[in-house]
Amino acid sequence: MKKITTKTALITGALGGIGKSICKVFDEDGWTVIGTDIRMQGQAPHCHVAMHIDLDKLCKDNIYKEDIFHEIISKTDKLDVLVNNAAVQLLSATNELKLEDWYETMNINLTAPMLLSQLFLPMLKKSNGSIVNIASIHQQLTKPRFVSYATSKSALVGLTKAMAVDLQGSVRVNCISPAAIGTDMLRAGFNNDEMAISALGRLHPVQRIGYPEEVAKLALFLASEEAKFINGANLQLDGGISSVLHDL
Description:
- The protein has a seven-stranded parallel sheet with strand order 3-2-1-4-5-6-7, with helices on both faces.
- α1 packs across α9 and α4 (99-119) packs parallel to α6 (147-166).
- It is globular.
- The protein has nine helices and seven strands.
- By secondary structure, the chain is an alpha/beta fold.
- The protein has one domain (8-180, 212-239): Rossmann fold.
- It starts with 7 loop residues before the first strand and ends in an 11-residue tail after the last strand.
């Protein structure tokens, strides 16, 4: 039976592989879900409110930012958790990196989480709520051509810790750093080659890649009453791969 709660979650990147699972898990736990995505058109599964938001524009246009804020507060008078899940992954070698791609990556992956946290801080303080940032294993371990993405995710972990200290317990701020998660984006990166994806899974000590639902359930836990003593944490949801030494 579906739980009934009066809590509200704002989740960005609601149409992505992980975002859809986060919305689903919070909805099934009885939360009111406000889902946002740049691709949003009309309604979306497990979103009570579905909104089109361009996070890159949010970082550049103060009028747009204020319009988005007022649109959201017109739909809810409370907020218990902000899940900064939306991200862009623009790959390029260092010597080929375009400045506009760097700025877009930083805006969406780092600056937007900060601005949304700032915008909704009064509501989150009022509910003694929390912020959950979705980072990546690339904040610690990365690969060639991930310069912008890895930098943005490293900074997002730093932002998480700094905000947790700065807010002094009025709003908890935590981070999840997943390793390989079975999303359409990951599969596209491997050209949907199931043999390559299976080989990737075997690199993880658990012998598989992760499921979007596992990220979603951890986000729900971090937003719950049971996690009230967890603050400023970066939880590595990585199947043990960050403990593996490759020496061949």
